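Both lines are given unchanged directly below:

***
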Amino acid sequence: MNWGSTIAALVAVELSLRGHLSPGGGFAAGVAGGTAIGLQLISGAAERTQRLFHQYRADLLEKMAVLGFLLLAMLALLELSPAAGRFGELLSGGWIPLLNLLVGLKVTLGSWAMVQRLVRHRGLL
């Protein structure tokens, strides 16, 4: 399971960074990131992942990702954008790669919280 979760995490990063150049984007990256964490949870590392969730304040990070997205969206509405790169390059998307990263982070952390609760209360539902 560790190899599977590592590959899913790497796919999540690749999808979020190159989502404006190929199919993918923030939500797809978040689903891949959530899958990576979900694989860790169901493989028996639930205690460790719960400890990491609280240690790194993942719930607070999820809210900060939303605020960062709103801030970047406001900058885009004010027509403040980074320098445009050449077509087809990683930096050719303006704010889009950063927005994809923030959406991916939000979906990953939300999936982490949801799957963690499911695993913890699986016998009570």
